Amino acid sequence: MVDNMTKHYGKLRALDGVSLEIRRGTVLALLGPNGAGKTTLVRILAGLIRPDSGFGSVAGFDVVRNRTGLRNAIGLAGQFAAVDQLLTGRENLELVGRLYHLGRKVSRERASALLQRFDLSEAADRMVKTFSGGMRRRLDLAASLIANPRVLFLDEPTTGLDPASRKDLWDMIRSLVEDGTTVLLTTQYMEEADQLADDIVVLDRGQVIAQGSAAELKARIGGQFLSVRLNDRGALNQAAEALSSYVDETPHVDEASVEISVAITNGGRRLAGIIRDFDEAGIEISEIGIRQPTLDEVFLSLTGQTAESAASPNGTGEGV
Amino acid sequence: MASNTLVQSRLPNFVKGELRWFIPDVAAMTMRNVLRYRRSPDLLVFATIQPVIFVLLFTFVFGGAIQTVTDNYIDYLLPGILVQTSLFGATNTGFGLAQDITSGLVDRYRSLPMARSAVIAGRILADTLRNLFVITLMIGVGYALGFRFHTGIGYAIGVVATLALFSHAFSWISAFIGISLNDAETVQVAGFVWLFPLTFMSSAFVPVATMPDWLQVVAQVNPVTVTVDALRAMSLGFGEIWGNLWQTFAWAVGIIVVFASLAITRYRRLT
Questions:
Q1: On chain B, which terminus has fewer CB atoms closer than 10 Å, C or N?
Q2: Is A11 helix (H, G, I), strand (E, B) or coil?
Q3: How far apart (Å, rounded) are the C-alpha atoms in residues B14 and B7?
Q4: pLDDT per position in chain A (320 positions), as tens?
């Protein structure tokens, strides 16, 4: 679908030879920090901007030469919920329906159905400025779906949402995929990519640095992570040593947060032993858990640097 | 090379889509913007308060000092105020478009298979309707202060229609500014400042003959002057109607042709 795509903003290379493919009916997650080029790629594929070079096609439509066909086949939900604050939820959806040229009657029917599906029926006739952040995102998603697009672009769909709203939105995205929609989503969260995506493409400074299924990527970076927070800063080194028989890598010790984190395999089974060892050695545990690696940790193992330092300081490629 | 063939193969499709969907899309966008105006009445109130203050200030502060061809200054002043009100009202277009760009709404519109020009044209049509409303209110305020049409209802309608055309034309300039700067706050200031010299270096408030020679040259060709003079001739019943009206039309059509193409080109090239 995308072949050797490049895009420059002045000296900044927002995209530097990106190639990728999405299988029909699956979810592809573009994972990367701010400035990695995720939004730029989505904007090119949605026909909003032109690439400097390279080829892209979505649902069989060339993203440069056949934008009219493209626009009829896609839905876009952006980083900022692009809904009109002074219109009601229903008016927003009906307007978008009319602009897709569905006709007044079909727009009205689709709007009602989507309001119901996204749990917005009760608020449907209130002005959007009274909506919560989660409701606005849901309405934005509904607006992008009004014409039954074959391909849906979601640019950081859950950024800034509370955990409950995020889970709601995930469920809704999953049910869309079940209905056969192809989804390309961008995210900064490993967990989100893991939850939703069939394939993950990791972007860094405009280049693809890794791709594969969530399982494949995790295998590459060590799967689960163990993190332990202690009560006593002085016990950190002793604790790190006690962990060494359970893990392959040298644990990362963070003095400031009194925390140790390290990649671990079969973490669930090993947890009991670790707790017992710590207990016997008299090391007090404040918190302990097995979790998914953060984007930072994914980046650390893929590039040797953290996501924050990877994001270029003049990284204006995102969200402009 | 490659980009040339691109342009050729894309243009027919683009033009086809524009023609086919222009009217329904403009209707949808106009309805959206009119709904927005109806739901933010504060905006309308302040849009009316400002010209009312101008009328009061000019009538009572300067009115006694300014010698005009009319017996009472308000008969002279009101056509000028009406043109100024239409001009200031036109700045809403750029501000609203910049706001839609910043909020991401324009991204959505641009991802839809709608006519590109309808986002701007729908906005401008709604702004023109809103200006008509404010102009009607202002004529009412003028009547309360002693302004009268010394001609007839036909001329009164002509005055309102001319103002609608005038504000429509300047909305396209404002649209171009709004899309080019695409930051709502900057647009609010930048979309405004050039209107002060434009309205004051004209016959809107004082007779041009009282200005220094060099300024008279500027004031004579100023579109505000020809429009105000046309409106005055229509409301007072003396003075040159058709000569001024012809120039007003020429200005309006020229502005619309130039700035509509500039604004739509800018819009299509947004990043």
A1: N
A2: coil
A3: 10
A4: 566 667 776 667 788 888 888 988 999 999 988 888 899 999 999 999 888 888 888 998 999 888 888 999 999 997 777 899 999 999 999 999 999 999 999 999 999 999 999 999 999 999 999 999 889 999 999 999 999 999 999 999 988 888 888 898 899 899 999 989 999 999 988 888 888 999 999 998 888 888 888 878 877 766 678 888 988 888 888 888 888 888 877 888 888 888 888 888 777 788 888 888 888 888 888 888 888 777 667 777 776 665 555 444 443 333 33
CATH no. for A2-218: 3.40.50.300
Mutate to test the interface with A, among B8, B43, B111 (most CBs of A within 10 A): B111
Residue A73's contacts (CB-CB under 8 Å, 6 or more residues apart) are: A58, A59, A60, A61, A149, A150, A151
HSE, side-chain direction, 13 A CA sphere, residue A216: 10
pLDDT in tens, B108-131: 999 999 998 899 999 999 999 999
Q: Is A66 close to B13, i.e. CB distance below 8 A? A: yes
- Is 3.40.50.12370 the CATH number for A224-291? no
DSSP A233: G
Assign residue A71 a region (left: φ > 0; alpha: ψ between -120 and 50; beta: otherwise): alpha
Inter-chain contact A46–B111, Cβ cutoff 8 Å?
yes
Measured distance CA(A123)–CA(A127) in Å, rounded: 8
Longest dimension (CA), chain B: 69
* Tokens linked to A275: 């707790």
**Contact (CB, 8 A) for A272 and A201:** no
CB B126 within 8 A of CB B37: yes
Task: Report the distance separating Cα A113 and Cα A122, nearest Å.
Answer: 13
Task: Please give the interface size between A and B, counted as residue pairs whose CB atoms are below 8 Å apart.
Answer: 80
Instruction: Report the gap between the CA of A130 and the closest CA in chain B (Å).
Output: 13
Residue of A79, A98, A152 best to disrupt the B interface, most CBs of B under 10 A? A98
Prediction pTM value: 0.82
> How far is it, in rounded angstroms, from Cα A264 to Cα A248?
8
CB A221 within 8 A of CB A194: no
Residue A295 · residue A307 · CB < 8 Å: yes
Q: Which of A99, A100, A98, A97 is nearest to A113 (CA)?
A: A97
CA distances from B258 to B163, B172, B174, B251 (A): 19, 9, 12, 11
CB contact under 8 A, B114 and A82: no
Which residues of chain B neighbour A68 with C-beta distances below 8 Å?
13-14, 17, 113
